[in-house]
Amino acid sequence: MKILIINGPNINMLGIREPGVYGTQNYQALLDLVAKIAEEEGLEAECFQSNHEGAIVDRIQEAYGKTDGIVINPAAYTHTSIAILDALKAVSIPAVEVHISDVDNREDFRQISYAGMACEKRIAGQGIDGYRQAMIYLKEKYGKA
Ligand code: DQA
Description:
The protein is of the alpha/beta class. It has helices spanning about 20, 25-40, 55-60, 80-90, 130-140; strands at about 1-5, 45-50, 70-75, 95-100, 120-125. 1,3,4-trihydroxy-5-OXO-cyclohexanecarboxylic acid binds near residues 10, 78, 100 and 101.
């Protein structure tokens, strides 16, 4: 099973950005965690990070017909991007939304999630472990060939 992990703007700054909110582990630690889970669970996982909305739309489109599941943390674009929502709907790949922080208990402007409208599950406030939970959810639901 192939899983694409997409991270939006500033996720590459993990470990540096607001450690009280996002933790002290850096983006490389997230990449290492994804690789470890993939190996343990027998998944093929690819990570993509971009600070650019259009690049994220392009990557979702490229996944059409080639990826069995998407784990996406659109970061700030969660709350603004209808383009990412439309791309997820266009490809119809099962998707899980992940947020490192507990977005539900943060500012009002973080309370809407456009991308989440095209995701079948949402994991928030679990730190980078949320990515593991999302990968395992997709494997359990869609990975049994
Ligand atoms: C985030 C939450 C977003 O509101 C924020 O803009 C981010 C990261 C998270 O993982 O908690 O950049 O998606």
